[in-house]
Amino acid sequence: MKQDIRIVRLTTGEELISKVTDTDAGYFLEDVYILIPVGQGKIAFGQWMPYADLKDGIKIKEDNVMFIIKVVEEMKRQYIEAVSGIVSPNSKLTSAADIAAGMGPIGEGVPDLRLTT
Q1: Domain ranges, residue 20
Q2: Does 74 map to a domain?
Q3: Phi-psi region for residue 38, left (φ > 0), alpha (ψ -120 to 50) or beta?
């Protein structure tokens, strides 16, 4: 039962980013955030079920899941920062100016994904 950070699409249409572990009856999710489109090509993480105590995780039945997919590395890094509070530099950045400007990998000219609450 390997745990990995994945995007989970529920049958309700909600897309979650979470630490996911396979179980016999479905999946166990920890540190769950909902993905929210906030504009052209932009995504934010939001607290999923803010009225519930999910600190111990939640079990989801397999029947309630449409699919589970890998997360792109930049979003995975942002998720880890959100969950742990530890900020790691983007390994593809080479200058302090790029880091300060919040720019993605050199040559792409696209700002990194950022968590908004």
Answers
A1: 3-87
A2: yes
A3: alpha
